[in-house]
Design goal:
Distance between the termini: 51 Å
Strand order of the largest sheet: 3-7-8-9-10-12-11-15-14-13
Number of helices: 14
Largest sheet: 10 strands, mixed
Number of strands: 18
Shape: globular
Strand content: 15-25%
Radius of gyration: 22 Å
Low-confidence stretches: 1-7, 18-31, 84-105
């Protein structure tokens, strides 16, 4: 059976030329770099490889993890696009190798063409809503949530199957990240083709940093039309709840004033339609407003300071970090934060999480308790093997997803493994 294009994964070995002398001697064997431009080109490629080596060596795994770097992500995308199928990896992906089929015998020329691709910086214009009235959703709406799911690999297809088993949903929502850089081909093959669209009445997807690495063209020109989605940020409401999806990637890890103004008007109009009573506000975004495991979101906090200080946000769901984290209520903002970025991208297990106290065990996985910091509330972090990454199960965090159920004034949230096992449930009032 032929391999599908969406099954191609790029390993570090894929990007290193298979010659004893490495990249420089391989290029020199054809034609030594003659100009400063060519020397800089080689140095830049070497720096990309060094970034990947550092990230990959930390896992000790054959599989190369994703890196939040524009050049690296676009390089991975282009290699995977051009690659010919090679041997299967223990993890289940396919390795793309350099060779005459890719370089055409001119490695230096090929790398130059590749970085021309990487340097296309003209992004698609942002597409904004044309209304400030939130769409109506059922008072008993069911929502399936996943983030960083757009790989077509590992736990992602299992999650799609489990969402279908639990159908129908009123809303299917992806919180962004299509591997590696959201090119139009990747959006189609790794995201839209496996997406369980038939399991929900409406599908929506958020913009992310990886989609914007390729200028957002795959996101705006392919993903949004496929979902009948008119803009990169949007809102739904019922009698008690206002659900708002934000674009925190077009302005990286931030929101411009026009989007914040739109959000303010949406909240105001929902309150007016509810007899002057504010609805409970739930936000969805790709990037985080705070984190216990990595960098914070100070620009997002600054953009929404008026809502945070007023404790006007009930819950906030995000991805970006490829972990599953359930936060306690934020002591200053009052909101419940949830990171569900463990949808399909391989993420190495963190040593500080593995060493943290175990709060509970569910089958093969555990919830680890991390104490609060000055910037973040205490939280539970999911840890354990990822059984979908064959041969390297113990090196990567488990994949999973979430569901939400509106029951009038309450919201029931559930965290599930990729195989459907329920790990956590909580009712928000």
């Amino acid at each position: 059976m032929p391999e599908r294009p969406d099954q191609k994964i790029v390993t570090l070995r894929s990007l290193e030329l298979p010659h004893a002398g490495g990249l420089e001697s391989t290029i020199a064997a054809r034609r030594a770099p003659q100009t400063d431009e060519e020397r800089l080109l080689m140095a830049r490629y070497g720096q990309v490889l060094e970034r990947l080596r550092q990230e990959t060596n930390q896992t000790g795994a054959e599989l190369m993890v994703t890196v939040s770097d524009r050049d690296v992500s676009l390089l991975q995308s282009e290699i995977a696009r051009q690659a010919q199928v090679a041997s299967a990896l223990p993890s289940g992906g396919l390795e793309a190798k350099f060779g005459t089929g890719i370089t055409g015998g001119d490695i230096l020329g090929w790398i130059k063409t590749l970085f021309t691709h990487v340097d296309r910086t003209k992004a698609h214009p942002i597409v904004r809503p044309t209304t400030t009235v939130a769409d109506v959703i059922s008072d008993h709406a069911r929502v399936a949530l996943t983030a960083d799911w757009g790989t077509g690999l590992y736990g992602a297809p299992l999650i799609a199957g489990e969402i279908r088993k639990r159908a129908p949903f009123d809303l299917l929502l992806h919180l962004g990240d299509i591997y590696y850089s959201g090119t139009p081909e990747e959006v189609q093959e790794r995201f839209l083709a496996p997406w369980p669209k038939d399991a929900g009445a409406v599908s929506r997807t958020l913009n992310s940093n990886h989609e914007m690495y390729s200028g957002g063209h795959g996101y705006f020109e392919v993903a949004l039309p496929a979902f009948g989605q008119s803009s990169s940020y949007f809102a739904f409401q019922n009698h008690d709840w206002l659900l708002v999806g934000l674009d925190t990637a077009y302005v990286d890890h931030d929101m411009d004033t026009e989007q914040v103004a739109w959000l303010n008007v949406v909240i105001s109009r929902a309150r007016e339609a509810n007899g002057g009573v504010s609805k409970k506000l739930v936000l969805f975004s790709h990037q985080q407003p705070f984190s216990r495991l990595s960098s914070q979101g100070p620009k997002l906090q600054q953009a929404l300071r008026h809502l945070l200080d007023a404790r006007a946000i009930t819950a906030w769901y995000w991805g970006h970090e490829h972990q599953c984290v359930v936060y306690d209520a934020h002591p200053a903002f009052g909101l419940l934060g949830r990171c569900l970025g463990n949808g399909g991208i391989p993420e190495p297990r963190k040593g500080n999480v593995k060493a943290a106290p175990t709060e509970r065990t569910v089958g093969p996985v555990t919830w680890k308790r991390l104490a609060a910091t000055p910037d973040s509330p205490s939280c539970l972090v999911l840890d354990g093997p990822n059984v979908a990454i064959k041969g390297e199960e113990d090196k990567f965090v488990p994949h999973g997803f979430m569901t939400l159920e509106c029951n009038g004034p309450t919201l029931v949230e559930r965290v599930l493994l990729a195989d459907g096992a329920e790990l956590f449930s909580h009712t928000i009032t």
